[in-house]
Amino acid sequence: MCLYALETMANEEQKQQFLPLAQSFRIITTYAQTELGHGTDLRRLETEAVFDRTSDSFVLNTPTLTSIKFWPGALGRTTNYVLLMAQLYTPNRDHPCGLQMFLVQIRDLNTHEPLSGVELGEISTRFAHAAGDNGYLRLSNLRITRTQMLMKLAQLHALSSGLKAYTSSVGERLAQVCRVACGGHGFLVASGIVGIKSYLDAVCSAEGDNVVLFLQTARYLLKVMQQVEEDSSEKIGSSTAYLYLPLWSSTTIINLDDYCRLFENRSQLQSQSESDAEAESEPEIGENSDSDAETVDESETSEYSDHNVESPTEVFDDEDVS
Ligand SMILES: Cc1cc2nc3c(=O)[nH]c(=O)nc-3n(C[C@H](O)[C@H](O)[C@H](O)COP(=O)(O)OP(=O)(O)OC[C@H]3O[C@@H](n4cnc5c(N)ncnc54)[C@H](O)[C@@H]3O)c2cc1C
Predict the structure, then answer these.
(1) Where would you tag: which of 1, 200, 224, 292 has the fewest CB atoms within 10 A of its CB?
(2) CA 194 to ligand 1 center in whole angstroms
């Protein structure tokens, strides 16, 4: 992650200074954006970086309880640097300049002890991601050089954030389907399914909440769609190029009856193929003498027959049970 951030967001001078350290794993970094009181709403992040012109440096602070960085993976015990998102201020704090990313050392590279002005530790146990070593970070007048501000702004990749939201949401839902399909066994730790579900559940929030990512993706698509409608010759990304394709028929998009008919068709085809498959697997009359029996002895088939358990019908037949 550190390598990617440096390669995409650092200038040449910063790359020369930090890349060799990151490539040799002397620098291990995590992304510190979320705060105890602020997640999705990035504009409200409170961590501040105030520029000090005299020393050509920034002074970093998490001035309130809600501004403490909370959640960064591997922060609790492992990392010695963070990619810190903070509100940038000019000297005298008179002019907020918006969010900016900084590469900040938090632990001594030799002793691994937190630096002066840094307080950190692990957050409490998670349902999943137990080995994630997620941590908290409090900064008090930590000074960093100006060159530690990453100079190039990150770009939001609509495709990757949309894909993350879609795959983790579908995965989480399907894990629940698998859990239920296995009945009670699916709820046993041994099945592993609840663990997978909890893991995917956390991914729905981590690295950008899915609801918000879906909204962003939808907004992006609407914007591209407008572009397409205004000027179909304009070049747009390959992931949205399908928006240029002619529609099959306008009625299939706007006519509810057509949608219903499509679902009916689908159901018809599925029922038909299931019914054909069943007919093919049924033995001919006389081929198997057991199948000639007109009635089936319930005591042989009931799931309660092998045990000393009352069947539900018996329970409800009992006068004492209303
Ligand atoms: C396992 C795990 C690992 C993580 N690792 C990191 C990490 O390495 N670094 C880091 O900085 N953070 C990390 N996080 C934090 C994660 O990025 C945040 O949890 C996430 O951004 C959501 O923020 P929040 O938890 O404050 O929820 P909130 O933003 O408060 O969201 C709460 C609810 O409100 C809804 N909501 C919020 N805003 C809107 C909106 N505008 N429109 C509609 N609905 C909205 C959301 O959909 C959600 O349902 C991690 C989280 C988890 C669970």
Answers:
(1) 292
(2) 21
In angstroms, what is the span from residue 43 Cα to ligand 1's centroid? 14
Q: What is the pLDDT of residue 221?
A: 83
Cα-Cα end-to-end distance for the chain: 63
Q: Kindly report the backbone phi and psi dihedral angles of residue 28, in degrees, each rounded to the nearest multiple of 5, phi listed first.
A: -120, 125
Q: What is the complex's ipTM, to 2 decimals?
A: 0.97
Give the least confident one: 84-93, 216-225, 231-240, 303-312.
Answer: 303-312
pLDDT band at 44 (very low <50, low <70, confident <90, very high): very high
User: Distance of CA 309 to CAs 111, 303, 304, 314, 315, Å?
Assistant: 65, 9, 6, 10, 10
Could you tell me which residue, 22 or 279, shows the higher pLDDT? 22
Ligand 1: centre distance to CA 28 (Å)? 23
Q: What is the CATH number of the domain that holds 103?
A: 2.40.110.10
Ligand 1 mean position, distance from CA 285 (Å): 62
CA distance 19 to 17: 6
Residue 96's pLDDT is 79
User: What are the Cα distances from residue 314, in Å, to 133, 297, 301?
Assistant: 54, 17, 16
The answer to whether the beta carbons of residues 48 and 89 sit under 8 Å apart is yes
Name beta bridge partners: 145: 57
Residue 54 CB neighbours (<10 A): 6
Mean pLDDT score of the chain: 81
Q: In total, how many domains does the chain have?
A: 2
With respect to residue 86, please indicate whether it lies within any of the assigned structural domains: yes
Residues 136, 19, single domain; the answer is yes
* CATH number, domain with residue 199: 1.20.140.10
Q: Which range has the worst mean pLDDT, 23-27, 92-96, 177-181, 236-240?
A: 236-240
Atom index in ligand 1 nearest the CA of residue 74 equals: 8
Q: Which residues line ligand 1 (CB under 6 A)?
A: 30-34, 39-40, 71-73, 129, 132, 134, 202, 205-209, 211-212, 215
